Amino acid sequence: MSLTKYLTTADYYRHDGGILNINGAMANQGPYNYSYIFKYIIIGDMGVGKSCLLHQFTEKKFMADCPHTIGVEFGTRIIEVNGQKIKLQIWDTAGQERFRAVTRSYYRGAAGALMVYDITRRATYNHLSGWLTDARSLTNPNTVIFLIGNKGDLDGQREVTYDEAKRFAEENDLFFLETSAKTGDHVEDAFIETARSIYQNIQDGSLNLAEPESGISPAKQLSARTGNGASGTDGSGQSGDSKCQC
Predict the structure, then answer these.
(1) What is the pTM of this model?
(2) Burial of 194 (0-12, 13-18, 19+ CB in 10 A)
(3) Are 145 and 152 in contact (CB under 8 A)?
(4) Does the pLDDT at position 179 exceed 50?
(5) pLDDT at residue number 169
(6) Which domains does the chain have, with CATH numbers?
(7) SS3 track for 9-35
(8) Segment 78-90 mean pLDDT
(9) Residue 88, by phi and psi: left (phi above 0), alpha (psi -120 to 50) or beta?
(10) 37 DSSP β-pair partners
(11) Which helix (H) or strand (E) holds 233?
(12) Integer angstrom CA distances of residue 184 from 120, 152, 156, 211
């Protein structure tokens, strides 16, 4: 079954204050050596909660008063997939049309794209086709695209049904979940399942890691460039000098 690919929280395990292992075990705490870096982008209209999703995933915090992103914001976190530590580099892009020329430059080389709409604002859902066109035309053919219906905690104000979004995802071969950046519901799931799918693409040979467009950097390449595959991270996996200013 392809993943609209109906995800349940039973597939995941959560633990505060450590690296998440999607197979249910905690990874060893530091030093933070990892096998790969995966580049993610978060795309979608202004105000759908992209920055709040980034904060919830990287810092386990909900930012109630997130100002709109200007240009791009950046965050990192180390996770574990099938016994491999993976560093996620996550680029949160501005949703305003006037910044699209700038943010489109960040699509290239993305291994994963989280495409977000607000379940309480139909206009943000109606614009998904445009965002998907950009993602498909500016990233590589194997980029994993995950559709996220955010603000699930506001179900009483819903303007987009789960079923219609699921159909859109099925028709376009997308992963799909509804999330709440406020409560954290399914936020881990979206980011981690994207990584798991990317890793599967590596294992089955559908990604050429020698191509920059793959969005994946093996650790041995990083070590050759930096001398330390884990430099720049703090104990939470957040980049020491890069913190999302939602």
Answers:
(1) 0.74
(2) buried
(3) no
(4) yes
(5) 98
(6) 9-226 (3.40.50.300)
(7) HHHCCCCCCCCCECCCCCCCCCCCCCC
(8) 94
(9) beta
(10) 87, 217
(11) none
(12) 17, 10, 18, 34
The residue with tokens 């049309």 is 97
Structure tokens, 121? 């604002």
Residue 216 is encoded by which pair of tokens? 């994946």
- Per-residue pLDDT for 95 more than 60? no
Counting Cα atoms < 13 Å in the Cβ hemisphere of 179 gives 30
Cα 133 from Cα 137, distance rounded (Å): 6
Q: Measure the CA–CA gap between 181 and 187, rounded to whole angstroms.
A: 7
Label residue 73 by pLDDT band (50, 70, 90). confident
Q: Which two tokens stand for residue 168?
A: 């859109």
Mean pLDDT (whole number) for 215-244: 47
> Tokens representing 130?
């445009």
Q: What amino acid is encoded at 199 in this protein? A: Y
Phi and psi torsions of 216, nearest 5° = -125, 130
